[in-house]
Each structure stands twice: as C-alpha cells, then as structure tokens.
Amino acid sequence: MDKITLIASATMGLESIVADELRALGYENIKTLNGKVEFEGTIKDIVKANIWLRCADRIYIKMGEFKATSFEELFQGTTKIAWEKLIPVDGEFPVTWISSVKSQLFSKSDSQAIIKKSIVERLKTVYNVDYFKETGPLYRIKVQILNDIVTLQVDTSGEALHKRGYRAKNNDAPIKETLAAALIYLTKWKGEGYPFIDPTCGTGTLPIEAALIAKNIAPGVNRRFSAEKWPLIPENMWLETRDEAYTFEKEDEGIEIFGSDIDGQVIELARDNAEKAGVDHLIKFEQKHLVEIYNYTKSPYGVIISNPPYGDRLEDQEKAEKLYRLLGDVCRKFKDWSYYAITSNENFQKEFDMKATKNRKLYNGGIKCYYYQYWPKKTRKTFTYG
C-alpha cells in the first residue's frame, strides 16, 4: 500500500484537538468530521499515529467509500475494494461494528452479512481458494452508512487508545485518559515551570496525563496494537518508532504536579497508577481536603483542573453543588492562575459563583458535559491560557 487515508476516531467535541495533534506531528490535508479526523499517510503513519496520538480513540485505515441504496450496490461497491492489499490469505476479517443513519440500508445485520460475503468473494478470486480458515492476524472491519454513503474501515489499534496500560483494571475511573489529555491540551500547559494541581484527583488520571505531556512521553510507547501482527508492517518499523519516541522525552526539571483527594484509598490507587506509568517521581499525591491545596505551592502562576463529582443522582446533587461553591472560593484565591472544571451539572457556574471565560461542550463516557475555563486577567507572555 502506498498513500492511504487514515481515520483517527474521536469523542464528540475532541475532533479539533485531534486535528491539532496531527498538525503538530507534521500531517497535512487533514479533514475534520463528526467523531473523526481523516488524514493522508503511509503504513509508517499507522505506527506513528497509534504511538503518538493522545486524544484519539482509535486509528483506522479507510478502505473505501461509495454510495449504496440497495444490497446489490453494497455488494458490488465492497467487491471493488482491493482487500488483498491488506488482508493475507490466513487473515481473520470479521465485520465487528456497523452503523446506519438516515440511509435506505437500515438493516445492520443484513448489511453486515453482505459486506462479509463480498470480501470473501473478492479474496477467493485473488487467492484462488474456496475457504478461509481465518487463523492469522486480525483485521476488524468497521462500517458506517450515513445518508446512503458507505465508509469501510479497518481497525489498526485493537484496544482503544485510552488504554495506556497504567490504570488498574478494577479502577472505577470517571474520565478516560484521552479526554484527560484533551482537557490539559486546552489549558496550553506543558510543564514549563508552572505548577499543575488537581484537587479532586481520584485515581490520578489527570495528573498522570499531565506528567506524560510535560515529559513528552508518547502515550502508546509501552502498549501493543492489532496492526503489530500484520505482515504488511515490518516489525522493525514499530521498534524504530518507539526508539525514536524515547529520544524525544524531556528532562524532569521544572515539572511540578500535585494531586489530592479526600479519599485516602483512591490516593493509594493514584500512586500505583503513576508508578505503572513511570511518572510517580513527578507527581506529589496527598490525601487532602480541597481547602488544603494552598500548601502546595507559592507560585504566582499555574493551572488547576478539577473533575468534581457531577451529582447526577438527586441525593448527591446538593453535596456536589456545595463542593462547587467551595471550589470557587479556593480557586479565586489563586489570583493569577487559570482554573478549569468539567461537569455535567448545568448549575456549576451559579454555584462556583463566576461566569466562565469560555465554556466548551464535551462528552465524558457518553454524558454531555461542559468544560468551564477561567483565565486570569493578567497573564505572562510565556504562558498562553485557553
């Protein structure tokens, strides 16, 4: 395969951030769509995107796109795609995910079966075989049908990219690593000698992602991907990209990251997670009440990010809103800092007692949330907020 179109899928609201990540990695011809970002590359970019993207959900190869209003058109359109350039004779190629929105092909199960049959028929002709055992590497096929336009994709990532490998399996964490990284990107914080505080850190996702960003540690450098088993991609390409990523890591100097929570048990989990991520030496986790974060630093500038309880259940709402009031009181005493909070509670600004400088709609685990961003009136030239 020479030039290919790749798709970085993204949580709704994060598409522009993923596009910015791709530009920073040197990609051009980027197309931002709902829930995904398309970009051009080669097989080497499958490796690079999986290892380096912090805010994307998965990386797909876009195999083809065509209009289909009948099952015959769906079959013929799928058959025209050169699947053999990607899938070897022993490859396993299930159609694992399909959606159909505002399209005449509304039966997902029928469309799924026809696409599978079409690929089989194409590969039978190419490989001159009658039956595929599918005992080799895995090529999961994703199908999106929107307004009668069929888009066929193959997953290169396997497990979603938010699974960096440092979070304990039994963690009941309220925020994905990819979303946490995006929240930090929106602050423009990169370390730079300015403190970072999460006063409601739970199991530590935000401080850990902050440490990975400050150190410029590639988020996928220590995990594995489905495409690593593909014969199309040489093993040394993965090795070289990982080795190169290690050379881009920054020194520890000037990194100040603090995480606190009133629950001592989750603080212990946070420490364990940070150790698994290799950044435990960069983060000071403590069991503290929210009002005690004054003791962390005397720096005149810095960032506070909080993912406080949402209070979605009626009995928890009063407690959550009391916490928002306290958070507002605490944050305002950090006069020239910027502070940020993500919550689904639409009363947040009222309880926080301050209108946000900027408010961005995001989705956390399918829940519609708002990212309230508060920027100081006075900022330093070396640190751009927002």
Verbal overview:
The protein is an alpha/beta fold and 386 residues long. It is built from 10 helices and 14 strands. The two termini are 40 Å apart.
Question: What layout of secondary structure does this protein have?
Answer:
Blueprint: E1 4-9, H1 15-24, E2 31-33, E3 36-41, H2 43-52, E4 58-67, H3 71-79, E5 95-101, H4 108-127, E6 141-146, E7 149-155, H5 177-185, E8 196-198, H6 205-215, H7 235-247, E9 257-261, H8 264-277, E10 283-287, E11 303-306, H9 314-332, E12 338-343, H10 348-352, E13 358-364, E14 367-374
Parallel strand pairs: 5-6, 8-9, 8-11, 9-10, 11-12
Antiparallel strand pairs: 1-3, 1-4, 2-3, 4-7, 6-7, 12-14, 13-14
Helix pairs in contact: 2-7, 3-4, 5-6
Main features:
elongated, 14 strands, 22% strand, alpha/beta, disordered C terminus, 386 residues, 7-stranded mixed beta sheet, 31% helix
- Order of the strands making up the biggest sheet: 2-3-1-4-7-6-5
State the assembly state of the protein chains.
Answer: single chain
Q: What order do the SSEs take from the amino end to the carboxyl end, as H and E?
A: EHEEHEHEHEEHEHHEHEEHEHEE
Average predicted local confidence, pLDDT: 93
Fraction of helical residues: 25-40%
The percentage of residues in β strands lies in 15-25%
Distance between the termini: 40 Å
Number of helices: 10
